[in-house]
Fold this sequence. Notes:
Blueprint: E1 7-11, H1 30-44, E2 48-53, E3 82-86, H2 97-103, E4 108-114, H3 116-129, E5 133-142, E6 146-147, E7 153-154, H4 156-167, E8 173-175, H5 177-185
Parallel strand pairs: 1-2, 1-4, 2-3, 4-5, 5-8
Antiparallel strand pairs: 6-7
GO molecular function, one term: hydrolase activity
Protein name: Cysteine hydrolase family protein
Keywords: Hydrolase
Amino acid sequence: MTKQIPALLIIDMQQAMALPQAGERNNPQAEANIARLLAAWRAGGHPVIHVRHMSRTPGSLFWPGQSGAAFQPAFQPLDREMVFEKNVPDAFTHSALERWLHVRGIRRLLLVGVSTNNSVESTARSAGNLGFDTLVVSDATFAFAKADYHGTPRSADEVHAMALANLDGEYARVLGTEQALALLAAD
């Protein structure tokens, strides 16, 4: 495994994700953990990439120009940080993310954000398939409660855990915030 500090990829930390209509979620500490990671990456001058979902569905909370589509204040990108917009769950689809990473020689990614079973999982699968050394921070991501295919209600914790299980060892390595911060200390 490479020793390169991964680029921090913050997925969909937009205002709509904090609204009650987003649904019942898990990991109430996720935003604090993302903020800790963001502060550490910024302090070290390491690459930070923000991904923002811009819906193509009129009336969506993520429709361009709606307040829900804006970044949460704590995750407002700095001028030196890259922003990619997407309109599907996967941050690599219809974006220049892969090329941008390759041009800069970035081969390692640390994914945080929302939702674990949607945009995080989709992006991590693509990253792994594209050959990136992909890390997903379990306590800096969160999911929402959802019924499974058979209609059985699943808690946000169950949805989150299944998404992480889908990724770990196949497309990515799952770790916690403390382990992610240790990557910087080891540099």
